[in-house]
Specification:
It contains four helices and three strands. With 103 residues, it is α+β, with helices and mostly antiparallel strands. It is globular and about 45 Å long.
């Protein structure tokens, strides 16, 4: 049997390209590492430089998770953070599960 083939670049199909082209992934972000803070032009640039998946960086920026791979992330401009955080808080509050996990 052959070992699992690893791709040098992620496999990009039409849906992934569409998702990665959203505005929220092209906003400037700041990564607070242990010894310094670094400004990146976009979440996708931060992903390429650090190797941290872009959805983890986005979720850390909006406050859904506290850190992504032991790095604190935030948007360089606060109004985007507030907008996306408010969306997720409202979605979480409006979500109710009437029954168990199996229906």
């Amino acid at each position: 049997m052959h070992p699992k083939k690893q791709h040098k670049y992620p496999v990009l199909n039409e849906k992934v390209i569409q998702k990665r082209s959203q505005k929220k992934y092209h906003l400037p972000v700041i990564g607070h590492f242990a010894d310094r803070s670094v400004l990146f032009n976009s979440i996708l640039e931060a992903e390429a430089a650090t190797g941290i998946h872009y959805t983890l960086i986005f979720e850390a920026c909006i406050g859904k998770i506290f850190k992504a791979k032991n790095v604190i992330w935030e948007y360089a401009k606060g109004n985007h953070y507030i907008k996306y955080k408010a969306y997720y808080i409202n979605a979480q509050e409006s979500y109710t599960r009437k029954s168990g996990f199996n229906g």
